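Hi R.,

As promised on Friday, here is the backbone we talked about, encoded as structure tokens. Could you run it through your design pipeline when you get a chance and send me back a sequence?
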């Protein structure tokens, strides 16, 4: 029986839930999912983008409760060091933490204008200037990482917590038909081909189309 319980929200709409869940999958942690009701205040808070630090997702493991996606990632890196959720090189590790922090605290216009919705697709979606600024910044981050560490993931040959942090952005770019350069488009394809991402998307497709306001 799994010794860990991961509390998450909607798989179609829950960007922070995906970050925590994918990090746990990349770590190789055995866990059971506890999916909270759409009526739960914590789920509504995530859907309304009120905070990036809340009790969804949260991890309960061997009596230790950890919430906030970055805290979960650091905890998993400690208990599952062989998963290499953070790069081995000190400079790359600092770089990884820095871009994860940018995702954790920034890009508010992107979040508001292009909310995560895996089941939807909006061809030729109109992107306003502030959201485009966030997109340009993310593309620059990805491009620098792919060029520096050689890909196919942001920090080399295997996915890290950085890829988990930016995975919801990948789904947004696909949902809203965001035009990308070839390296970034290939990176998005690579992320969506991860077995864990395929599992998440399959579950998201089974959810109701709408949640109550």
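Update: got your reply. Pasting your designed sequence below so it's all in one thread:
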């Amino acid at each position: 029986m799994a010794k860990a319980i991961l509390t998450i929200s909607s798989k179609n709409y829950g960007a922070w839930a995906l970050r925590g869940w994918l990090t746990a999958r990349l770590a190789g942690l055995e866990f059971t999912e506890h999916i909270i009701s759409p009526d739960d205040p914590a789920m509504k808070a995530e859907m309304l983008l009120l905070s990036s630090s809340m009790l969804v997702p949260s991890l309960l493991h061997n009596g230790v409760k950890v919430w906030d996606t970055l805290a979960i990632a650091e905890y998993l890196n400690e208990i599952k060091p062989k998963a290499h959720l953070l790069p081995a090189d000190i400079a790359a590790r600092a770089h990884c933490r820095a871009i994860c922090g940018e995702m954790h605290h920034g890009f508010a216009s992107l979040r508001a204008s292009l909310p995560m919705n895996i089941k939807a697709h909006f061809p030729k979606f109109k992107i306003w200037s502030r959201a485009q600024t966030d997109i340009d910044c993310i593309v620059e981050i990805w491009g620098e990482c792919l060029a520096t560490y050689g890909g196919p993931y942001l920090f080399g040959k295997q996915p890290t917590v950085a890829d988990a942090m930016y995975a919801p952005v990948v789904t947004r770019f696909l949902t809203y038909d965001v035009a990308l350069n070839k390296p970034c488009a290939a990176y998005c394809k690579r992320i969506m081909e991860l077995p864990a991402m395929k599992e998440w998307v399959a579950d998201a497709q089974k959810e109701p189309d709408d949640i109550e306001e």
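One thing I noticed while checking it: The two ends are 37 Å apart (CA to CA).

Thanks again,
M.
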